[in-house]
């Protein structure tokens, strides 16, 4: 067990870190919300695979984000880049980077009275996490009171109107992710505790992580991570207790997949839909009462130089159509002669 002095230092550091109280919406956020920030909180709309946006959203099974490295490469581990992570989102419209279709191979969204949570698995090398990286924890506090990433903001409309979430925790590795955003309340710091950064997703957020499943549920809040009755475990103690059991869920809706209809590779985007624009590819396989989802449009509209990318499929189809028409007319004339 840690000595009383060590525990007092941990508690004091935690209390000091949990002082971030500024409140923004995406529409009124400053360019940078914390000193030393590498990216921005003024992100615009659409999407951009080189975006430096550090706003994340967690609303539903087809509308959520993760923080990840801005650049690929073996040195872009979460441990090395935690201060400068950027936002990668499943849905277009936030001015962020998009999570490429095929990255996520299982995802589970749970809404409880106290928090919303995303857990899942996939190939997270597609959002610049190096293969073999066991990952790390991101939160709005960091060791010095600034966030990891510095200036990272999280928003959610799961509890009503879109609002900033002040207490959240996001773990991500090359194969697994989890993200919990706690509704503003006295118990939010405890339910979104950020001091267990070495313990990983399944210990901090026991839930479903099965590959091949896509599900949205209502759920119980369960026990706070690290709290066992009247005792609290602190990382680094000689004996680590088992994770809590996953809280009960209900009113679940299953889906065949989630995505944005876009195949994304590096800084380039290719639409897999028609010239009328790509749309969310989420498909409901079954539905029960009490669960809902949003539609999730994902259409690119602007130029890359302006921070967005243009869907050029429409004019290419027009040229092909005109060319086929001319060839058809010549062939018809030859047949008549």
TrEMBL record:
Keywords carried by this UniProt record: Signal
Residue numbers spanned by region Disordered: 277-305
Record-linked InterPro entries: Peptidase_S1_PA
Signal peptide: 1-17
This protein's name: Carbohydrate-binding module family 13 protein
